[in-house]
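Hi R.,

Here's the chain you asked about this morning:
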Amino acid sequence: MKIVVMSDTHLNRVSDELEDICARYCDGADLVIHLGDWVSASVLDYMSQYPLEAVAGNTDNYDIHDRLPVKKVVRVGGRRIGIIHGWGSSGNIRGRLRHEFPDVDAVLFGHTHQPLRLEEDGIFWFNPGSVFAGRGDPRRSLGILHVDGRIEGEIIPL
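And here is the predicted structure, written out as tokens:
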């Protein structure tokens, strides 16, 4: 199963570049997960054409918060995956987020704009980075998860 994971689009409108990225990566995906900080509900509306699971982020307005939870657990291929945007400093973000999901196989989060792929204490941690406002290397990225008995992920530089 191919899952596209995006976060931190920070767009005020659907851009041509977002459309191109979605056509390249989301078309044909089994699932698209967006981890918040959409900024505009028009981006959420556009992304809803795909099989979408999503949460709201800390910079999202009431329109988005009224439509999306701040966290949720999705079941994919028999695995429980917690999805959340995140908050606060990046220093101990995994420690804070671990308390939000006591019984999951993976935690997907955004907020830091820095890609992360890590297995720790039986949990697969994954941050796809930011599609348009990345920090670090790569500057802009998204993620692809493959769930086939186990969860594996790759960071795709944009």
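One quick note: The chain has a mean pLDDT of 93.

Cheers,
M.
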